[in-house]
Amino acid sequence: MLSFLVSTIVIALLTALSFADVAPISDLEAYNNGFIGQFPFQTFKSSDAVAPVFQINTFEPNRVDASEFLFLTIEHGDKSGPAIFSSKDLSLVYADIRYNTTFDARAQVRNGGKYLTFIESGRCHAFNANYQKRWTVSIRGLGATDANIHDCEFTTQGNALITAYQDIRYNLTALGGEMDGWLSDSIFQEVDLETDRVFSVWRSFTHVNLTDTMVKQCFQGKSFSNPHRSCAHRNQTSENHYLVSSRGLSAIILLQADTLDPQWILGGKHNQFKDLSGGSATNFANQYDAKFVQGNESRISFFDNQGTETGLCNGDNCSRGVVVELDYDKMTVHLLHEFLHPQKVYSGSGGSVQGLDNGNFLVGWGANPGITEYAPDGTIVMDIQRGAVPYIPESDIGADMPVYRAWKMEWVGRPPWGPSITSSAPGDDGSDVSIYVSWNGDTQVHHWEVYAGEDEKNVTSSPRLLRTHLESALKLKSAWKG
């Protein structure tokens, strides 16, 4: 248990300790209607960090998973960046909001080391525990093509799986398009982080029939927006396989790593599994974030968007978190878990499902800025918002506040910079001085000690003070000297 000494040249008597962080809100109607502000956020005295003010609808501390931190990306103004929050009270632990557009902040392990990774403007960044950049990786050998926002996954071999779109000329008459049209081809690569060597390249147009799409065509400028271009998640499950999720095909595919040919297909027009749940395990659509549940290759979790629009659902087309179990011998699948949002929403983009260590599941609601944790029996043990739910596209309330993905994980942050401190000046009548202390990114210091006195040779220390939020405000009875 570490503490940190903060020195001030004052004659002081400690009178109170308070927390400068704004407490989460618990007024759902006011929050969703924008009465607290369209984008509720907070700033700090001693740090230039910003943080959302969360709405808490449900929180059962004895039933939530014990992972210490919640990982998100957050936005403020025209900037964005990774952010880490305490899972216990949602207070900010770390934020670096200096990028243009960021997605999917989380902790990943590579060769025994843990790294903070996130996607930014076509690149995947990895920072070590000292918040120093270790790697930046992007798609190789495709000219100006950038990695898209969907994935940057470390493999068990220590490489990175990243995704991209590339516009190519293509005959689109089979879908009612032009003979010399534009196809936005979906690509993934496995790249060596140390040498930039590319091990594998998969392209949708060489492996997928365009007529297998489950989505109607749409046009964006000169480019035909390929309905099946979004292969939202690739996870190398072993040395011999990749797991691919295609939104447009509404299918999840296991690929052989050597040939890149399908070993099996779940969902879509070429589903190979008998659904033992009356269609509930295979009738997903436009899904995101398909992955094996904590390495168990017989169970897959994913976020079933059920469409490309965002708003309230009518009960039949709600977005949902899904966990299915596969029997490869019998080629059957059945629904293990289905998680619906308590306000019944559908999200047109984004979304995630994470299996947690205690058996719970964490669902990030994509375009709807909510995060919900479920017990295995489906009971909601945490439901929070970082913006209005449901997000209404025609409204400014909650805009730009999605939860593309949410993760609960462990992290040890050891920033090379020290703590930040500032104070308010005392009044002429000797009124209290407030000293504000914070340490952006640090996870090891749990107490503050304040030293105060007339000069550096005559100081006394305060009692040890518990650090529970990003910023602590210490009120001192004081008379300044000199």
What is the structure about, briefly put?
Residues 1-20 form the signal peptide. With 482 residues, the protein is mainly beta.
What tags apply to this protein structure?
five-stranded mixed sheet, 49% strand, Neuraminidase, 2 domains, mainly beta
Task: Report what the structure shows.
The protein has 482 residues and is an all-beta fold. The chain has two domains: 2-21 and 419-479, no CATH class; 28-409, Neuraminidase, CATH 2.120.10. Helices cover 2% and strands 49% of the residues. The chain is built from two helices and 40 strands. The protein has a five-stranded antiparallel sheet, with no helix packed on it. Strand 3 (41-43) and strand 4 (50-52) form a beta hairpin. It is globular and about 80 Å long. Mean pLDDT is 85; it is low at 1-19 and 217-233.
Name the CATH superfamily assignment of the largest domain: TolB, C-terminal domain
What is the domain total for the residues?
Answer: 2
**What is the rounded Rg?**
25 Å
In what order do the strands lie side by side in the largest sheet?
5-33-32-31-30
Point out poorly predicted stretches.
Answer: 1-19, 217-233
Content of β-strand:
over 45%
Q: How does CATH name the architecture of the largest domain?
A: 6 Propeller
Tell me the helix content: under 10%
Query: What is the molecular shape?
Result: globular
Tell me about the biggest sheet? 5 strands, antiparallel
Signal peptide: 1-20
Pfam families: Arylsulfotran_2
Keywords: Signal
InterPro entries: Arylsulfate_ST (IPR053143), ASST-like (IPR039535)
